[in-house]
Write a structure and sequence with these properties.
It contains 6 helices and 9 strands; from the N terminus they run H-H-E-E-H-E-H-E-H-E-E-H-E-E-E. It is α/β, with parallel strands linked by helices. It has a domain of 150 residues: Rossmann fold (3-Layer(aba) Sandwich). Helix 1 packs antiparallel against helix 2. The longest helix has 18 residues. The chain is globular, with a radius of gyration of 17 Å. The chain starts with a helix and ends in a 10-residue tail after the last strand. The structure holds S-adenosyl-L-homocysteine. S-adenosyl-L-homocysteine binds next to strand 2, helix 4 and strand 4.
């Protein structure tokens, strides 16, 4: 017989160890480590994979998509946050299973998370419902267009790799705001790009780590 209590305790301790290991990956923000120690990643992936939930790996979430590695989630959030304590109003492109959206909600004033695949949007909504997160909105839409009705955003985080940064996302970034996105360099290479909006016309770009994300695609399915 499965002992639910013991299983949950095993997940809790695995999650705490995962969060502690983030410090070795260069995560310095106690708030980020705390958020990663709080959100139960195993709840967002299928049962057959839940024993791997607290390893530092990306895992399939259906529809050929993947949940990002915990260390990459933490690094992207840290790059957006720098020395601030909160991310402000956030736009996430690519809700996927909803895990990163839950992490972001603990570190932001408000989070808007957009997904283009209806079945993933619906299942993320169902998984997130029990957490009753009051500052998170899930939107079924094509994130390449951004989310005009809620712009501008202090932080934009893109969880899928495009050939460049879509113009609407640059337009919808608040002055002083930051955007992070994986961008395709060649058939086998992608790089994280951090963009800070300095004024209405000026953007500063910094390239960060090599990464591997699923593609940013247009249209809704
Ligand atoms: N943050 C997610 C990672 C999901 S993978 C998580 O924690 O699980 C990236 C997601 O981006 C996929 O679900 C994919 O469908 C979505 N995506 C790709 N292109 C998109 C677009 N143009 N608009 C919205 N979502 C998109």
């Amino acid at each position: 017989m499965v002992n639910i209590g013991t299983t949950e305790k095993t997940f809790d301790s695995a999650r705490r160890s995962m969060a502690q290991r983030l410090a070795l990956a260069g995560i310095k923000h106690p708030e980020i480590i705390q958020a990663m120690a709080t959100v139960p990643r195993h709840v967002f992936i299928e049962d057959a994979l839940s024993s791997q939930a607290y390893e530092d790996s990306s895992l399939p979430i259906g529809r050929e998509q993947t949940i990002s590695k915990p260390s990459v989630v933490a690094k992207m959030i840290q790059a957006l946050m720098q020395d601030k304590k909160k991310l402000g109003r956030v736009l996430e492109i690519g809700t996927g299973c909803g895990y990163q959206a839950a992490v972001l909600s603990l570190l932001s004033e408000e989070v808007y998370s957009v997904e283009r695949i209806r079945s993933l949007h619906d299942s993320a909504r169902a998984k997130l419902r029990p957490f009753r997160i009051s500052n998170l909105r899930l939107i079924y839409s094509d994130g390449i267009r951004g989310l005009t009705q809620a712009a501008p955003f202090d932080s934009i985080i893109v969880a899928a790799a495009g050939l460049g940064i879509p113009d609407p996302l640059l337009d919808q970034l608040a002055i002083g705001g930051r955007l992070i996105a994986p961008v395709v360099k060649s058939e086998t290479e992608q790089q994280l790009l951090l963009i800070e909006r300095l004024s209405s016309q000026r953007y500063q770009r910094t390239t960060l780590d090599e990464v591997f994300f699923v593609p940013l695609q247009s249209g809704m399915i």
